[in-house]
Amino acid sequence: MKHNIKIIQLFKEKDFTNTRVPYYLIFLLEGNYNFSIDKKQYHCSGKNILFTSPFQNIQWLDVTPTSASKLSFHGDFYCIEYHKKEVACNGILFNNIYLSPFVCLSDSLYEEISKLLLKIKEIQHSNQSYDVSILKSYLQLILALINKQKLLDTHHLDYILEQDYVLFKGQLEEFFHKHKSVLFYAELNGLTLDSFSKKIKKVYGKTPTQLIKERVVLESKKLLHLTNKSIKEIAHELGFNDEFYFSRYFKKETGISPLKFRSEVGISIVAKKSM
Predict the structure, then answer these.
(1) Are 52 and 76 in contact (CB under 8 A)?
(2) Mind listing the pLDDT tens digit for each residue in 159-174?
(3) By the 8 A CB rule, do 172 and 209 touch?
(4) Closest among 123, 98, 115, 101 to 204, alpha carbons compared
(5) What is the pTM of this model?
(6) Which residues 6+ apart lie within 8 Å of 193 measured at CB?
């Protein structure tokens, strides 16, 4: 059932499959890992925890696992937006286009997360109401512990750019609905296109074009999952001339149509409560 929470062990390189799925994924990793998420390559070694959102494109390029576990859960099981008061992980651990998708863990935190995953694994197939509540509590504790660690790093990249008086992140958040041209943001910062692009790539490891596209897609997913708005309404809100162009844009970046995304990921309890 798609509301389930599930943990599996990844023992060998062949167990790491490239996938786009309608689930939130959490990987607890020890070892060396090269992978890409939405075409951006990453490397982590030692003890780390990795987070991906529904239909993100994760490709494992080269892995040497010492130990690895994958936890998956559907938004119907645990809605990260609905529980944002308890754990503000949406935009920090998940759906964060600016920061690395993984967090380096201390030995003690790694062991603590490992124990929580083991507890989840022991009762993951239970349908008893009290066990479902326990599972959600364990998951929420994992998210809270890592979110606390991640928040220590959230302002670092912004500060680096602000030292050069480049306020791209804030500008993108304000204008991405209407302005999808890199030139617009370069001129807003008083820089040439080339100089602006190099600064952004140096700090975020992504081009401005990549970040603009990712921000538009992120908002698209948010509106598809957290609202009851039609595809036409969402397209208009995001500055597209028509829903067909928006659908092609979304599918090119995600590999799935907006309608299919909504069908697989579902309508959040947040949207249902606003009806």
Answers:
(1) no
(2) 666 677 678 989 999 9
(3) no
(4) 98
(5) 0.91
(6) 182, 183, 186
